[in-house]
Amino acid sequence: MTSVGVVVPTRNGGERFVECLEGIAAQRPAPDAFVVIDSGSDDGTPERARSAGADVVSITPETFDHGVTRNQAAAALPPVDVIVFLVQDAVPLDDDCFANLAAAVARKGVAAGTARQVPPEGASFLTQSTVAMSPFADDEAYETGPFSSIEAATMEPSEWRELLMLDDVCTAVRGDVFRRSGFRPTNHGEDALLAFDLLSAGWQLVHVPDAVVEHGHEYDPEGVFERYRVDARFFRERFGLRVRSGRLAALKGLFSEVLRDVRWLSAFPEDREPRALRKAWALRRAQLAGQLRGSRGPLGRLPDRRDMPRSEELDRDADDVA
Predict the structure, then answer these.
(1) Does the reported pTM lie above 0.85?
(2) Arithmetic mean of pLDDT, 210-223
(3) Is the predicted pLDDT of residue 321 greater than 80, yes or no?
(4) Beta-strand pair 204-214/91-92
(5) Which of the two ends of the chain, N or C, has the fewest CB atoms closer than 10 A to its terminal CB?
């Protein structure tokens, strides 16, 4: 049977983390190991995690890093076959969520699989529209890769952005691969960087629609601006890509996003809120302004290739053992 370990980084998870813990507890079979790495919670989050059976690793908020911190938590797991990375406000909806992820990752040549995301019950129409249009909300399975070393080496930054189909809101990574690679140190986009590393090494990524988690955020314009500014800056600095190349591109993006929200309200009129379109305009304008701001500045370049285990290497080793 495939062994599964779970990693959840936390800080003041609140009631949403309680729901996350309940979702983890409902998994069948139960995870073989569960580690929470907490960075300075003062709302009882570590105590709740321990009561739910998690091993808790405590760090200071100042040392938190999206890549390094997850690596530290994963290192506290036994050598499981599959590691499921989850965020504190993602709730597994069915008792076979982790089992379905593990089964997908156990396939030959697959390094990681990402769960389907659906918005929380009662979410605003803007959150529902945003989550529903994400590729991680797709209810059909799809695969990314594998690519040959020549294909990976010749791809442009704009091509790579569409291929980084890994989201550690809820994602499972093959244990023997992760233990020899891990996340890169970074303050943003650790899952995108891992996707780049895995695809560059010839692995395949899969979207697993029968593994479902509930996840979504409610933002005000200031929060939206900052979220998309940071994301655009990440792609500019770490991948050499301007998400929005200029004001015209931002303007086109703005109208595209608002049109999407209008179509959502037309399809689901019951979700219409007071001043709905005014809210959509304000948030989408902040979103595109953040992308435009984050896209300004010197361009970086694609990450250097890491020394990663390749699919044919580990799968051959597994065949030899068998």
Answers:
(1) yes
(2) 95
(3) no
(4) antiparallel
(5) C
Q: Which domains does the chain have, with CATH numbers?
A: 4-215 (3.90.550.10)
Q: Which pLDDT tens digit goes with each residue over 283-305?
A: 999 999 999 999 999 999 999 99
Longest dimension (CA), the chain: 63
- Which pLDDT does position 111 carry in this prediction? 97
Among 81, 79, 42, which Cα is nearest to 58's? Answer: 42
Place of tokens 């929200």: 261
Nearest to 231 by CA among 66, 11, 91, 20: 66
What would the two tokens of residue 144 be? 């990314």
Pairing outcome for strands 82-86 and 91-92: unpaired
- Confirm if 177 and 83 have CB atoms less than 8 A apart: no
Tokens of 182: 């891990």
Provide the CB-side half-sphere exposure for 183 (13 A, CA). Answer: 26
Kindly calculate the radius of gyration of the chain based on its CA atoms and give it in whole angstroms: 20
Whether the bond between 29 and the residue before it is cis, its omega within 30 degrees of 0, is yes
